Amino acid sequence: MLEVTPMAAEVINELTSQSEGTADDVGLRFALAADQNSQAALELSLSEVVDGDEVVAAPAGAKVIMEPAAAQYLEDKVLDVREDSEGNPAFAIARQEGQATT
Asked: I need a labelling partner for 39 at 20 to 30 A (CA). Which of 31, 52, 60, 73 fits?
């Protein structure tokens, strides 16, 4: 199952608190989409849970919502936050330690 670091949870909470919906119902949503080269790409958005989604309760009450294909892709990953080149927080996905590569 996707792991969410405390830092990532903090950023998710900041984002959802600024969203239009009720913060308790909104989470960071991952969806799998094909890019122009027919390769899988993750799309991020703030959204409420839709039937069939998998929800991960993260530290500090943050919520990560994943469509089924994204949940399968992210099952052995860790969601973290790093600073981008401008010093802004950017989500980063890495393989969980101790997981075999396939």
From this structure: 52
DSSP strand pairing (3-4 vs 89-95): unpaired
pLDDT band at 95 (very low <50, low <70, confident <90, very high): very high
CB 91 within 8 A of CB 78: no
Residue range of the domain that includes 62: 3-95
| Reported pTM | 0.84
DSSP 11: H
10 Å CB burial of residue 28 (0-12, 13-18, 19+) is: buried
> Over the stretch 51-79, which tens digit does the pLDDT of each residue have?
999 999 988 889 999 999 999 999 999 99
